[in-house]
Structure formats: structure tokens, C-alpha cells
């Protein structure tokens, strides 16, 4: 286990933005009513916010960031670092953070770069920006985490379509000597990188015309090689086997127990996975917030989105110790233990699709 | 951890809400009572992991036709893991 310890950095505020378009899984008529009900019961996902082709995760992150900067009254020129973490970029090149850098009006001396990670990405990116800030003279850092997994999940694929939602988030970090240290741990099993994969559209396989041909893989699963391919059983077992082990080891390494943590904010993969991890680790479900019923799995955005929708009041009025755990594509996992102290949380923002 | 077949059957009956009126014993063909859909397969994997700390695979579920066969796989994995 790789363990990282960072001092002097705290979260100042957090915000999130979702498309105003809502898709209800009860209307998903390509599967039987019985199958639909079983899916909703297992995943806990009733509805999802889904973007149109007109917008991208960077648009949602932009609204989240603009709102947060305004409400915290932080001038854009004071942002010392910008990181955009996503697997849904605006263009093949340039990096999407360059576009956000311009739209937000950041200083030319502010570095901006992308991190390509999915569901595990938030703890990773949080540690990267915190570490940079800690070793610099900059006061503020802006972390944008957003994704649009619905784009590659066609309605003809029952294994992915009803699972995903879209969202963009913004987190502003502040350098302050008074803040409690943050801890991070990470892992990756590259041998299982094919468990979630989009095969075509990049350098390995290019994008020949047949990339877009839809093929029936099995009943209810019709997709192309430009769509996401997911081995549900493998991902599920990874999530309920490797992830709780990583959480347990991390707690032990930091000499903490379950009751030292106010909330475990886990990647919102699906209800069964979160419930099972909580049960295995004997964590009270009351301190494991979920928003799957309304947003589905929003990939890298799910942890900060869950903080905004489920913990707004607690985050704004109390000092909290949070355990964050992201896990998924890679297969990759990242955990963080952070302390928050009366941070600003914006109301959930909506983008017109 | 010693796993009793009677407890194993009880755990499955509870999770899948199998009525008392339905015969569900060690010799029962699992598919005759529980449809092995992709969703039920995930429920099986989670149940065996939380109850017995055993990581089954989708292949294990395909190989086990009867409750006894599934039980035997779980017991053998519980010993080796």
C-alpha cells in the first residue's frame, strides 16, 4: 500500500452541477418489468441526470466552479493550480483544463492539467493538488471532477444504460497552517484493465468505420466498440473484495477505527456494493451516505456530488473527519482521510441541456 | 469457520425470500427455485462474501447445479482463502 501524508491544505468549499434532464429507470422499456424492478432494487438507482450531446463535463464543472468562486468571493486570479479529472474530455487535444482555464479567467502563471481517471479519481486528484499546493507559495487550488458516462452507455445495453448519470463538480482547496493533515492511499491492478473498457476511438485501435457498428453481445446487450464494455461480475467482486481490504489496511496504517470517522463517502457505484462494503467492514449504514436513487453512478464526480447532496448541512456547520473511497476502471482504487471544518457548500446547480 | 449445510440453506432461503412451502434442500437444483439472472448472480456473490468471507466467481455459480455443489465450493474456498 502506498501511503501519502499531506499537511497545511484544507477544503474551503465544494459545489456540483448536473444536467436538468432526468431519466427514470422505471421507464426503461427494453427490459421486462420484473427485470427492471430487480435492477432498481439491487442498484438503488431510480433516476439519473443525463446530458445531451450539446454539453460536456467541462461545462458542468465550469458552472460548479464559477458558482463556488463567486460564493467564496475568491478572485479567479488567486487560483494557483487547476486540475480537471475526467475520462470525458472536450477534444482529443488540447487538454480540457486549458479550456476551463480560459473560461474561468485564470492567470497565465496558473498551471492547468488533466488527470485521466474514472471512479477512483477524486482521492487521487485531491492528493495531487494538495501536494502541489503544499510545496508552493499559492493560496488556492481548484479541482474539477466531472464525467459523462452516459455518452458511451447506449439504451440498447442493459448492463450499462440504467446505471450511469452525468455530473461536474468543483472543489477549492486553501493553504493554511492550521489545517489537520490529510492521508491518502492508492492501488491499481492493471491486469484487470479490460474489466471496464472502451476499445476503439484512441491510438491502440484507432477509429475505423466499423467502430460504430452495433453488435448483439448477448440478449439485451447491443453495443459498438465506441461504447463502454463492462464485466459486471468482475467489477462487483473487485468492489466487495479488494476495496474493503484497502479500506481496512488504510485505517490500520493511520491508527484509526470506524468510530473515529464521521462519514464514509464511498464512490456511488451501486447500492448493493455500498451496502456490502459497509456490512463487511461493520460500518453503521447511517454514516455511509448514498444518493444513487436520484443520480446513479456519476463516475469520478460521485464522491463530491454525494458530499454536496447528502452532507451539505453537516459540512457547513461542523468539523468532520471523512473517509473517501473511489474505485473502478483500471482497476484502480484511491482512499483519503481528510478533515473538514465548516466548509462552504453551494446549492446543487443545474445546466440546461 | 465451520459452515453447516443447514445454516447455508437457511441463509439462501432468507436472502432470496424462498417461501416455506417450497422445497429447498441440499439436493435442490438451484435454478429450479432461483433464476440465475445476472442480478441474482451478483446477489449470490455479495451474500457468500459477507456471510462466509469467500470470493466466488461467476464461473463457480455456473458450475454449481445443486445447493450441495455450491456449498462444497464455498467450503473448499473457505479453507484455502
What does this structure look like?
The complex is a heterodimer of chains A (353) and B (81). With 353 residues, chain A is α/β, with parallel strands linked by helices. Chain A contains eight helices and 18 strands. In chain A, strands 2, 5, 6, 7, 8, 17 and 18 form a seven-stranded mixed beta sheet that branches. Chain A has a five-stranded mixed beta sheet with strand order 1-9-16-15-14, with helices on both faces. A two-stranded antiparallel sheet of chain A has the order 3-4. The N and C termini of chain A lie far apart (42 Å). The model of chain A has no long low-confidence stretch (mean pLDDT 96). The longest helix of chain B has 15 residues, at 38-52. Chain B has 81 residues and is mainly alpha-helical. Chain B contains five helices and no strands. Chain B has one domain (5-80): ACP-like (Non-ribosomal Peptide Synthetase Peptidyl Carrier Protein, Chain A). Chain B is globular. Chain B starts with a helix and ends with a helix. At the A-B interface, α1, α5 and α6 of A face α3 of B.
Amino acid at each position: 500500500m502506498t501511503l501519502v501524508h499531506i499537511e497545511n491544505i484544507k477544503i474551503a468549499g465544494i459545489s456540483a452541477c448536473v444536467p436538468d434532464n432526468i431519466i427514470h429507470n422505471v421507464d426503461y422499456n427494453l427490459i421486462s418489468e420484473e427485470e427492471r424492478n430487480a435492477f432498481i432494487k439491487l442498484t438503488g438507482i431510480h433516476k439519473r441526470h443525463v446530458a445531451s450531446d450539446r454539453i460536456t463535463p467541462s461545462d458542468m464543472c465550469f458552472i460548479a466552479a464559477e458558482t463556488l468562486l463567486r460564493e467564496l468571493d475568491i478572485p479567479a486570479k488567486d487560483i494557483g493550480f487547476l486540475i480537471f479529472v475526467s475520462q470525458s474530455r472536450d477534444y482529443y487535444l488540447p487538454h480540457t483544463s486549458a479550456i476551463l482555464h480560459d473560461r474561468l479567467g485564470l492567470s497565465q502563471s496558473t498551471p492547468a492539467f488533466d488527470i485521466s481517471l474514472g471512479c477512483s479519481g477524486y482521492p487521487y486528484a485531491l492528493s495531487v493538488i494538495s501536494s502541489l499546493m503544499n510545496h508552493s507559495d499559492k493560496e488556492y487550488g481548484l479541482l474539477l471532477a466531472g464525467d459523462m458516462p452516459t455518452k458511451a452507455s447506449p439504451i440498447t445495453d442493459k448492463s450499462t444504460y440504467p446505471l450511469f448519470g452525468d455530473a461536474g463538480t468543483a472543489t477549492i482547496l486553501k493553504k493554511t497552517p492550521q489545517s489537520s493533515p490529510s492521508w491518502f492511499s492508492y492501488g491499481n491492478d492493471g491486469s484487470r484493465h479490460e474489466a471496464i473498457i472502451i476499445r476503439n476511438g484512441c491510438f491502440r485501435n484507432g477509429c475505423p468505420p466499423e467502430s460504430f457498428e452495433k453488435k448483439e453481445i448477448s440478449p439485451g446487450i447491443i453495443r459498438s466498440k465506441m461504447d463502454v464494455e463492462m464485466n459486471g461480475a468482475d467489477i462487483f467482486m473487485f468492489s466487495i473484495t479488494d476495496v474493503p481490504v484497502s479500506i481496512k489496511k488504510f485505517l490500520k496504517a493511520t491508527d484509526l477505527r470506524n468510530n473515529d470517522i464521521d462519514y464514509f463517502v464511498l464512490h456511488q457505484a451501486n447500492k448493493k456494493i455500498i451496502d456490502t462494503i459497509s456490512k463487511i467492514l461493520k460500518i453503521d449504514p447511517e454514516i455511509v451516505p448514498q444518493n444513487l436513487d436520484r443520480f446513479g453512478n456519476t463516475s469520478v464526480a460521485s464522491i463530491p456530488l454525494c458530499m454536496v447532496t447528502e452532507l451539505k448541512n453537516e459540512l457547513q456547520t461542523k468539523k468532520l473527519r471523512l473517509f473517501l473511497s473511489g474505485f473502478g476502471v483500471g482497476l484502480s482504487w484511491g482512499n483519503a482521510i481528510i478533515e473538514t471544518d465548516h466548509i462552504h457548500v453551494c446549492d446543487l446547480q443545474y445546466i440546461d441541456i | 469457520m465451520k459452515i453447516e449445510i443447514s445454516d447455508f440453506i437457511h441463509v439462501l432461503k432468507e436472502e432470496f425470500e424462498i417461501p416455506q412451502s417450497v422445497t429447498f434442500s441440499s439436493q435442490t437444483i438451484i435454478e429450479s427455485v432461483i433464476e440465475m439472472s445476472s442480478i441474482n448472480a451478483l446477489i449470490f456473490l455479495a451474500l457468500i462474501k459477507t456471510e462466509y468471507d469467500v470470493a466466488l466467481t461467476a464461473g463457480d455459480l455456473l458450475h454449481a447445479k445443486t445447493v450441495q455443489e455450491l456449498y462444497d465450493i464455498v467450503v473448499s474456498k473457505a479453507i484455502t482463502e
